[in-house]
Amino acid sequence: MKFQGHDLSALDKLDLDGRLKWAAERFPGRVGIGTSLQRGGTILIDACVRLKLNSIRIYTIDSGRLLPETYEFIETVESHYGIEIEKHRPDPAEVRKMVGQHGLFLFFDSKEKQELCCFVRKVQPHDLVLEKLDVWITGLRRAQSQNRNETMPCEIVQRGGRDILKLNPLYDWSDLMIQDYINQHNVPVHPLYAQGYESMGCTICTTPIRPGEDKRAG
């Protein structure tokens, strides 16, 4: 499989550093790491800083309803690495329109309204970021959940009528590999992991998981 003339088959044979360098060298200024500051995301940030891959953009989507600890942790990560993470927010007019029609807590009413809230607060601003990227780097891993156990090193996805390379450089990493990297490189860890959280989304919609539940259940 190829993307913009580049052979993608080599990605499977590279390690994390190699995968990130591959993207930065072939698509300078058009690569971005999208992260909600979970373990995988902070590892990707650490690797980019360590490798001095300054052309890779690092961004997060601030829905306006993130957990308070996440806002604090963003500042912690920025201070630790001496960087500024791009914060992309929803269109205030779109949020006002949605809240005016459906109320502030519309996500309790139905699955459809929950999806509308996510679309306005997260999907739309993310799509605007992707308009200026050729490569979107994620922290997706096979070990995260049953739904992700077929995650590939990369895939070509469509956003806004154009192809984007979705790169998953941690796709084959186990939980042990994640923890080993964190320990070896002194990577900051979101404090809510210690309280049973495995996802770091919006307040109210994100909860700790119970013993035995899928890691994505929260």
Q: What are the SSEs and their pairings?
A:
Elements: E1 2-3, E2 6-7, H1 16-26, E3 31-34, H2 39-51, E4 57-61, H3 68-81, E5 86-88, H4 92-102, H5 111-130, E6 135-137, E7 154-159, E8 162-167, H6 175-185
Parallel strand pairs: 3-4, 3-6, 4-5, 6-8
Antiparallel strand pairs: 1-2, 7-8
Helix pairs in contact: 2-6, 4-5
Architecture overview:
The protein has 218 residues and is of the alpha/beta class. It contains 6 helices and 8 strands. It has helices at 16-26, 39-51, 68-81, 92-102, 111-130, 175-185; strands at 2-3, 6-7, 31-34, 57-61, 86-88, 135-137, 154-159, 162-167. It has a 6-stranded mixed sheet with strand order 5-4-3-6-8-7, sandwiched between helices. Helix 4 (92-102) packs antiparallel against helix 5. The longest helix is centred in the middle third of the chain and has 20 residues, at 111-130. The relative contact order is 0.18.
Mean of all residue-level pLDDT scores:
92
The percent range for strand residues is 5-15%
End-to-end C-alpha gap: 35 Å
Oligomer: single chain
Contiguous low-pLDDT stretches (5 residues minimum) are none
Concise synopsis of the structure shown:
This protein is of the alpha/beta class. It is built from 6 helices and 8 strands. Strands 5-4-3-6-8-7 form a 6-stranded mixed sheet, with helices on both faces. The chain has a two-stranded antiparallel sheet with strand order 1-2.
